[in-house]
Specification:
The chain has 17 helices and 16 strands. The protein is an alpha+beta fold. Helix 4 crosses helix 8.
């Protein structure tokens, strides 16, 4: 998961889609590019759908198997794992680090710690640079960096995100999970006794205690737990899984892995610590029985709702009109009399082209007898661009009573052979 998540995070900004970056959130231009999709702020509904899908997905995965997100994909977990690996490469394993830290300051200790922190800062700054690359075209950002011409905001966010990565993954580590992350506090609302969690088989493991590999368990009245405390040492949050389910547990399974290695050394069966459910441990269920109970009503309900929302969102994306228009009445000129005894209203229209090619738009108006466009009504908008245009509508003086009247603009895209309708009002003065 470390390699997979970082391959996506670090690699995605460098992917090209046509003549542009494949994934780019251009806040300045108010356009968001996601591969073949070009979204505008008016497409906010899709962001809402994505957030709802993420929330329901979190509920579903938590109900099925606990804190999977925390244990395998959370940036805090992933970057902590990366920083721990770099620390091991620079300073050696845990025992070597403890011996070196207990001694005085030597040249060996200084250069190793300097190397570790240099590697940490390099990864942190590259992470910040990549993060900014999702909002500023990363090729341009790279050129600006090499020429030392990055903008102040780009420098600020690169340093800010880099500092956060360096501090959280290098120093705070499990404290973020235990004291800052809100997920641990409300996960209990999504857990039940059929949720797959990391569990300790107390019946098999107790009474725990150290022994030789040749010890007779029957005569010593010991369980399979040799009380080596390795499960505590490898735990990212420092808990003892043998004490039962605790909110600090992020479900990473590190304790299960190290316990299996100990069981192998002593010739005991694996699985003293494993993924299971509280009901399965209590009732002695087989793996098949356990998995069958995992597919319980709440999981099926979450899955059905999640699938329905995903299908609805994908359908909406497939059927969305690839251009948009906003109509704004010109507040500087509400209504006026012009030559020929006609009433004129002026409008500003924003035409937004969400396709990858130039589009030609024709605009007509309807809703009142004799209503006509008195200005240029054909406009071109370049690929993935938007354009403000001014449109004048005229109406015969006696065609409508005084007041506000509902009218409609029909915007037709030639290349797409598609039309949309936007409503507005036409003001007839008293």
């Amino acid at each position: 998961m470390v390699f997979l998540t970082q391959l996506v995070f670090y690699g995605l900004p460098w992917l090209e889609w046509g003549q542009r970056q494949a994934v780019l959130f251009d806040l300045g231009a108010r356009r968001f590019y996601i591969f073949g999709l070009v979204l505008y702020p008016q497409d906010f509904i899709y962001l809402t759908g994505l957030l709802v899908i993420s929330a329901l997905g979190l509920f579903l995965f938590t109900a099925v198997a606990g804190r999977l997100w925390c244990g395998y994909a959370c940036p805090q977990t992933v970057y902590t794992e990366i920083f721990l690996w770099l620390e091991k490469q620079a300073e050696g394993d845990r025992a070597a680090r403890m011996r070196r830290d207990a001694g005085g300051w030597t040249f060996d200790k200084i250069w190793r710690k300097a190397l570790k922190h240099g590697l940490w800062m390099a990864v942190a700054l590259w992470t910040g640079f990549t993060f900014v690359g999702y909002f500023t075209p990363i090729h341009s950002l790279g050129s600006e960096l090499l020429q030392l011409q990055m903008g102040s905001w780009e420098v600020f966010w690169t340093l800010f995100y880099g500092f956060a990565t360096y501090g959280n993954a290098g120093f705070m580590r499990e404290q973020v999970c235990k004291h800052m992350c809100p997920y641990a506090r409300f996960q209990s609302a999504m857990f039940d006794k059929d949720t797959l969690i990391v569990t300790y088989d107390e019946t098999r493991g107790e009474s725990r205690g150290p022994r030789s590999k040749k010890a007779d368990l029957a005569s010593s009245k010991l369980g399979h737990c040799v009380d080596c405390n390795l499960c505590v040492q490898v735990c990212p949050t420092g808990i003892d899984i043998r004490n039962g389910l605790q909110y600090e547990c992020i479900g990473c399974g590190a304790c299960a892995d190290v316990c299996d290695t100990v069981m192998d050394k002593f010739g005991y069966p694996k699985g003293l610590v494993k993924y299971s459910t509280q009901n399965a441990m209590k009732n002695g269920w087989t793996q098949r029985q356990t998995l069958r109970h995992v597919l319980r009503p709440r999981v099926l309900v979450y899955s059905t709702i999640l699938l329905a929302i995903v299908v609805a969102m994908l359908t909406g994306l497939m059927l969305r009109t690839p251009f948009k228009a906003d109509v704004v009445r010109d507040r500087g000129s509400m209504a006026r009399l012009v030559a020929g005894g006609k009433i004129e209203n002026v409008y500003r229209l924003q035409l937004m082209n969400a396709t990858e090619q130039t589009q030609t738009f024709d605009i007509t108006a309807r809703g009142l007898p004799g209503l006509q466009v008195a200005s240029d009504a054909t406009f071109e908008v370049e690929a993935t661009q938007s354009r403000w245009v001014v449109l004048r509508l005229q109406l015969p003086f006696d065609a409508a009573s005084a007041g506000s009247h509902r009218i409609y603009f029909d915007i037709h895209a030639h290349q797409l052979n598609t039309s949309i309708k936007e409503k507005s009002v036409f003001i007839v003065p008293r």
